[in-house]
Amino acid sequence: MSHAGHAAEPDKRTLRREFLTVRGRLTADDVRASAAALAVRALELPELARARTVAAYVSVGSEPGTLALLDALRARGVRVLLPALLPDNDLDWGAYAGEGSLTRVRHGGRMALLEPAGERLGPDAVTRADVVLLPGLAADARGTRLGRGGGSYDRVLDRLARARAHPALVVLLYDSEVVERLPREPHDRPVHAVVTPSGAHRLREP
User: Fold this and answer.
1) Span 26-33, mean pLDDT?
2) Alpha-carbon gap, residue 41 to 33, rounded angstroms
3) DSSP string, 133-155
4) Dihedral of the CA atoms 36, 202, 155, 97 (nearest 10)?
5) Helices 67-75 and 28-42, interaxial angle, to 10°?
6) pLDDT tens figures, 147-160
7) Other C-beta atoms lying within 10 Å of the C-beta of residue 146
8) Which terminal residue of the chain, N or C, has fewer Cβ atoms less than 10 Å from its own Cβ?
């Protein structure tokens, strides 16, 4: 994408590299402590506290940790759906039944992902979620989310729009990844809230 006339605005590829570099400096203890705080803060968001079905994901590497949150939701009786990456980068879904229900899957040369080992529910299962938790590298005050660029969650958001489903869209980040402004393209769909280890922040109403 051209940014002619906006020379001062970094492009998405540059921003991704910068945010990933900062994450790469985190220690395992940093990630673990942040995950515990993130689980507590996420449940302070009313949409998540009252949800019956949540589409989530299993964090990998230095991403903000999600397993503590997945277990907290499951302990409350929430149905948690987790993605399984398909060959075309779309996402299928399966139910989370505890950490022992996950299997490590390597897709080509990418980092191995933890995916649900049980029954596949189909890509449209996400349309029945009350809340969709999205991975990201940053978000701004307008709700613009910077993803990794793989396109999987763009497909999820398109599927929700086609189904006229309106779950709360929540991105999980570190505190330093909530910024004033990110570049937005026409296909980018804004999120409703951001949760970081220091708190939950609603950006707009679902």
Assistant:
1) 91
2) 13
3) EE--SEEETT--EE--S--HHHH
4) 30
5) 30
6) 887 789 999 999 99
7) 22
8) N
